[in-house]
Amino acid sequence: TFPNIVVSAAADERELARLLWTGLSHDGPFAVRYARANGEGVDWSPGEDSPLPIGKGEILRQGSDVAILGYGYMVYRALETADLLEKEGIHPTVVNMRYAKPLDTELLRQLALDHASLVAYEDHTLVGGFSSAVSEALHDLGLEQIPLLRLAIADQVVEQGSRDQIFEEFGLLPPQVAKRIQMFMRSHKPAMLVAK
């Protein structure tokens, strides 16, 4: 809620380095969220540490049925979830949104127009997090009728445990998420929208 702050989350160690460079080159407050455990094990070298465009997401996998908006650590979990959904005949788009503030509203608008439903997937709380920003942006864009499934940590005190234990408790592991998305898609009829 700080004015003019940039809030980002790194999907892996390479992106963490690039976001740090982005923050150092930015004239203003800049926050980077990152996982409390190991990274994904991606190959990278210091020469790849160039800044990223602020407020821009990236489509990692193109589908047609549902768009999964991954944020931070959940980007790779979103890709795992997409693999599971493909086996069920569902073709998801997976996006690394990268920034909660400023949110890539141009990309969000296009995803909303091109898909029957959206999923915001994060390892933050439901209240005041990335999925809240997505919900607010859809409302501001006049697209609040698009079904949005918000997957995050419930607004409660979280017991200590491993990352996977906590995610399992809140239904955030990829097999659980794939089932939740299927149930959500079955319960929401596709919205018919026309681009303005």
SSE map:
Elements: E1 6-9, H1 13-25, E2 30-33, E3 58-61, E4 66-70, H2 74-87, E5 92-96, E6 99-101, H3 105-114, E7 117-125, H4 130-140, E8 148-153, H5 163-169, H6 174-187
Parallel strand pairs: 1-2, 4-5, 4-7, 7-8
Antiparallel strand pairs: 1-6, 3-5
Helix pairs in contact: 2-6
Features of the shown structure:
alpha/beta, 6 helices, 8 strands, 35% helix, disordered C terminus
Class by SSE composition: alpha/beta
**End-to-end C-alpha gap:** 30 Å
Beta-strand proportion: 15-25%
Total strands: the figure is 8
Written as H for each helix and E for each strand, in order along the chain, the element string is EHEEEHEEHEHEHH
The rounded Rg comes to: 16 Å
Number of helix segments? 6
How would you describe this structure to a colleague?
35% of the residues lie in helices and 20% in strands. The longest helix is centred in the middle third of the chain and has 14 residues, at 74-87. Helix 2 crosses helix 6 (174-187). Residues 191-196 have low confidence and may be disordered. The strands form two sheets. It has a five-stranded mixed sheet, sandwiched between helices. The chain is built from six helices and eight strands, in the order βαβββαββαβαβαα.
Describe what is shown at a glance.
This protein is α/β, with parallel strands linked by helices and 196 residues long. It has 6 helices and 8 strands, in the order βαβββαββαβαβαα. It has helices spanning 13-25, 74-87, 105-114, 130-140, 163-169, 174-187, and strands at 6-9, 30-33, 58-61, 66-70, 92-96, 99-101, 117-125, 148-153.
